[in-house]
Amino acid sequence: MKRPTSILAAASATVAVALLAAGCSSGAGGGGSDDGSVTLTFWGSYGNGGNSTQQDALNKTLIPAFEKENPGIKIEYVDIPYDDLLQKLTTSAAGGELPDLVRADLGWVPQLADLGVLVPLSDKLDGFQKLADATYPGSLSTNLYDGKYYGLPLDTNTRVLITDQKALDAAGMSAPPATFADVEKMADALQGTGMSVFADGGLGGWNLFPWMWSGGGEVTNDDLTKASGFLDGSKSVAAVQMLVDLYKKGQIPNLITGNQGATGTSDGLPGGQYATILDGPWMKGIWSGQYPDFQPIYAPVPAGDGGSVSVVGGEDIVLTNSSKNQDAAMKFIEFTQTEQFQVEMAKTGQMTVIPAFADQQAAIDPYYETFSTQLKTAKSRLAIPQSSQVDTILNTELTPAFEGSTTVQDALTKAAEQIDALLADGK
Amino acid sequence: MTAASSLARPAPGGPHSRGGGVRARRSAASTLRYAALIAGAVVMVTPFVYMVSTSFKSQAYVLTVPPQFIPNPATTDNYTQALTTQDFGLYFLNSAVVAVISTALSVLLSSMMAYGFARYRFPGRELIFRILLIGLVVPAMMLIIPQFVLAKNLGLLDSLAGLVVFYVAGSLALNTFLLRGFFEAIPEELDQAMQVDGAGAFTRYWRLALPLAKPALATATIFTFLATWDEFVWSLTIINSPAHRTLPVAIKLFQGQNATQWGLVFAASLLAVIPVVVVFLVFQRYFVQGLTTGAVKG
Amino acid sequence: MTLTLADQDVTVPEADSASGTARPVRPAPSRSAALRRVAVPYLFIAPGVLLFAVAILYPIVQAVTMSFFDWKIVAGAVSEWVGLDNYARAMADPHFWQSLANSGIYMLFTVPPQIVLGLAIALLLKRKSPVQPLFRVLYYLPVVTSWVVVSLLFKYLFADRGLVNFTLGDFLHLMHGDVSWLSGRWTALIAICALGVWKGIGWSMMIFLAALQGVPQSLEEAATMDGAGRWQRFRAVTLPAIWPAALFVTVMLVIGGFNVFTSVLVMTGEAPADRPMSSSPTCTRRRSPSSTSATAPLWRSSSPCSCSCSP
Q1: Of A354, B145, A202, B115, which is closest to residue C15 (Cα–Cα)?
Q2: Tens digit of each residue's pLDDT (9 = 90 or more) over A339-398
Q3: Is C209 part of a structural domain of the chain?
Q4: Contact state of B37 with C45 under an 8 Å Cβ cutoff
Q5: Closest CB from B59, B148, B155 relative to A22
Q6: Is B42 on the interface with C (CB under 8 A)?
Q7: What's the pLDDT score for residue A50?
Q8: Which of C75, C79, C234, C293 has the greatest count of CB atoms below 10 A from its CB?
Q9: Continuous segment of H or E residues that includes residue B263
Q10: The pLDDT of residue B65
């Protein structure tokens, strides 16, 4: 038997050596390699819950096409769970280990820009203006922060009204509700059927702004400096009041006030619990897999005094300033704006951000038409670093209004005051 | 853990004879015991059974009223999809490699530490032990950013080694705490006897303390394996290449941005539970042996 | 947590002084041998302590330092010293106190049941029998399943149209109509505590099972001979023997209770900010510097992603 102490000494030495060796090997991953080619890392959430069509289009068609056109540049796409992407980006930013390119939710761009980790494309990318002008203004505006554009729209979407024949029959209607008045009429017709007229999963901007805008209300002034007088203006209040009235009649389920136990909209509509929902173009793919017999009907957001105005969603592509190969990365950004990229991704449910390709997109599937039309008037949410706090504020303040312990006016006034403070902070 | 006294004492003789009335009472008690155990087991297992059942349903049947316990129609699509859409086998292997190495290293290092703390009195002993205990109370989330920067400086990002190093470090405190008490319960006399025979410190640790602490080592092994097998946040944070991805991250990828396929998530999770159950089955038998058998009686 | 726990190793009657190194057994140790003996305990703990210091302690020190700054996330950016500002802000935040209260309630309703039930099951399973391993596995199954999965599972069970409502309403007729368990503070706490207990029983059972191996059987037999009843035997023999284990379980469960996070977030997470249907709103969803957790100040400053764990 060896002397125990020497064994221990050997063991601790091994640990120390391992740590040292590990320490010496740091600093890898510059993206360069011996043959002069560069590898760009691209993070995103194309994975979409086990549905691999988007990832396949990217990895098997688009990236090879780009690499063929641009010898010496390799793209490595890494799929990251959507819920955790922002957290991972933040931690990586702290370590200075961000990827070259990120497919960022449009709400994150001002936030990442505020951290100082993004390259302002409007300064650095030649021909930026031309690319920018080709996109939907609502999508483009989500990249604007402090006077500069930090990204380009990659894909877009918006919410439209979705219903089905079963629901229309139950309400005795021949067409989906086109106006606020129709929604209220439909609610009365559905009273006692056990079906709610409308369901939504929260009270954030994504959920409420379409109703406020369509009702003729505003969220803030145009300069993004004030919410008071806009968010709590009479038309915004009236739009929310309509939802509260429907909620009190039992025609909107408490899913909207954050009951995690309520049936989600994607199951409640095909399941016959909900008559209408507002949702995006991705639902088609989800339903075709999960509810093959369900035949959704798509229609514009019900119109009020302001017309039919929905909210812009989607993703932007951004370039981080820790990228060591920014020129190559900008080539890929340009590639994402081409017809080839946009149309190929449209086939997988990612709507194009370029109106010029809308016809081609409609040819892929006619149901895109409803979304393209809705996008023409759709607006984006507040492009401020704290945009997610706006959602928290709205949810917190409005839940009591739905539950009846305060009025909509008071709730929105309180919310507007807090959002004013955020807007002032952001400057 | 006062086992010390009992172990030093010779084991009692055979069972004492008892009257028939006692036997009847015993069998009644035994019936009652099983009834209670079965009732408890039903409560524990029902949610699990429901999960298994859901993993064989397609989404349209997941939320039916009344709930289905026996899926109709049943489908294995979820399992097929779980196994084929991602490189599930590779992630499984990555998780297994990381969990096995981390568990082995952690149990080795922490048992050495625990032995040092239990058997020796040296300057700084309690201070070091108390500092170690801080590791038990600090939430992992708090350390993510400093640890990430550290891992970067050590060149451990995007590698399985980076997972192992921090998993082992993270489990040391709990395991050392757990094992120290058991080592202290081992009678001092045995140690002294071995020492008289000329055994060195390491031999006494390896040949005497470890075999006698089997139940505790088995517990530490099971806990550590489970924790490392399951760990999500750190793995998500430092691993970038799909080639190094571990199972919990892969499972999370099944929860989409726009909808969750319950059946798929449950199917993938059930596949992931298998190794932990195996580890548990293998190591739990050491509870039955352990202190009462081992060197003391033999 | 009280560090006195370190000293409650009660068990060994002055074990340390008896350890070999203190009293040389063999005669005339050389100088180097003496040195080696002094070094032995340090060599035992060195590898682990070294790793712990580098990978845990050093990050802790950094995190604490960060909590005194208005920390700029990005590498290289200059952060501003704000002293106790972050702490003051947390103290002034009602969310902080509410989440603290919730943590307290959670512990009150999960820790004792886990100890009592875990011990009860361990006692029932102590005796050898052919089916014993099967029961152990069944009781341990919830422990081995990840928190995310069991949280999703319980969310699904406690859903408005879930199994719990079905069982209580349509099957047992104990209540009328469906309860929205996860929408109210108290009903949500019930669901979360039910999950905590269900998931934790197997864990404490394990520790107690291991500890029960150390209960002196001779004493039990002797107590039986003396005519002690079941309960008396338990109090006089078993309980003192497993007391350290019980303390250990208590401490670990309290720590775990304070860090309960996943289940609360998954089961009651507020309406996601963006896409409505993601069913696992995590941390990232609720980025807001004003929100807090039990470890608020440290957390807040070390990551922009902080979440309030108030159901």
Answers
A1: B115
A2: 999 999 998 888 999 999 998 999 988 889 999 999 988 998 988 888 888 988 999 899
A3: yes
A4: no
A5: B155
A6: no
A7: 61
A8: C293
A9: helix B262-288
A10: 62
CATH number at residue C296: 1.10.3720.10
* A88–B256 C-beta distance less than 8 A: no
Q: Which domain holds residue C202?
A: 89-302
The mean of the pLDDT values for chain A is 87
CB contact under 8 A, A49 and B201: no
Whether the CB-CB separation of A336 and A127 falls below 8 Å is answered with: no
B119, B178, B284 ranked by CB distance to C19: nearest: B119
Q: What is the mean pLDDT of chain C?
A: 72
Q: At the fourth CATH level, which superfamily is domain B85-297?
A: MetI-like (1.10.3720.10)
How many structural domains does chain C have? 1
Asked if A266 lies within 8 A of B259 by C-beta distance, the reply is yes
Say whether the ipTM exceeds 0.85: no
B contact test, residue of C145, C261, C298 with most B CBs within 10 A? C145
**For chain B, which residues score pLDDT lower than 50?**
1-18, 290-298
Residue C13: inside a domain: no
Q: Where are the domains of chain B?
A: 22-75, 85-297
Residue-range domains of chain A with CATH: 38-157+312-377 (3.40.190.10), 160-310+386-426 (3.40.190.10)
- The predicted model scores a pTM of 0.78
Flag whether C83 is in a domain: no
Are the beta carbons of B59 and A48 separated by less than 8 Å? no
Instruction: Name the residue facing A45 among B153, B257, B259 (closest C-beta).
Output: B257
Q: Is residue C3 part of a domain?
A: no
Residue numbers of A between 376 and 405 with CB closer than 8 Å to C: 386-389, 391-392, 395
Q: How many Å apart are CA B116 and CA B120, to the nearest integer?
A: 6
